């Protein structure tokens, strides 16, 4: 079975919630304002890195691995790390509400095998 066959079959699966981009950005700004304990670094101040968790925000934030990787990258003096979850399509970062294509480096944290499909969907 080829990868292309699997990706073609995936198109028949229900898509993530598609909302207008302005609404997705507003929801991400509200979510970031409600968080405590982390100070985002302005986009462009350092080399931007996207940390993609290929599932919803609530599941990703409950995953200690996401926190560990985010903290490790964020503490490095050359990088700033923005988290990206798949609550919306196309995926936008929580911190700067930018699409994945704006990042020169994308890290992926997969907790479940079924999330591999979502990685392929996000990177399209």
Helix-strand blueprint:
Elements: H1 3-10, H2 21-34, E1 47-53, H3 57-61, H4 64-74, E2 79-85, E3 105-108, H5 115-122
Parallel strand pairs: 1-2, 1-3
Please tag this protein with its features.
globular; 124 residues
Give an overview in words.
- With 124 residues, the protein is an alpha/beta fold.
- The chain has 5 helices and 3 strands; from the N terminus they run ααβααββα.
- The chain has a 3-stranded parallel sheet, with helices on one face.
- The longest helix has 14 residues, at 21-34.
- The protein is globular.
- Residues 9-14 have low confidence and may be disordered.
| Helicity, as a percent range | 25-40%
Instruction: Work out the radius of gyration.
Output: 15 Å
Counting helices, strands and paired strands, the structural category is alpha/beta
Number of helices: 5
Give the strand tally. 3
**Strand ordering within the main sheet:** 2-1-3
Strand content: 5-15%
Contiguous uncertain segments of 5+ residues: 9-14
Largest sheet: 3 strands, parallel
Mean pLDDT: 80
Identify the quaternary structure here.
single chain
* First-to-last CA distance: 20 Å
Per the principal axes of the C-alpha atoms, what is the gross shape?
globular
Q: What is the helix/strand order?
A: HHEHHEEH
């Amino acid at each position: 079975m080829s990868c292309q066959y699997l990706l073609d079959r995936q198109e028949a699966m229900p898509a993530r919630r598609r909302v207008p981009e302005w609404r997705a950005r507003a929801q991400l700004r509200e979510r970031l304002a409600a968080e405590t304990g982390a100070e985002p670094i302005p986009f462009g101040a350092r080399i931007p890195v996207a940390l993609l968790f290929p599932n919803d925000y609530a599941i990703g934030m409950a995953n200690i691995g996401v926190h560990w990787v985010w903290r490790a990258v964020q503490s490095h003096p050359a990088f700033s790390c923005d988290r990206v979850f798949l609550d919306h399509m196309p995926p936008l970062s929580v911190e700067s509400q930018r699409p994945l294509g704006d990042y020169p480096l994308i890290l992926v944290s997969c907790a479940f095998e079924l999330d591999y499909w979502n990685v392929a969907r996000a990177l399209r």
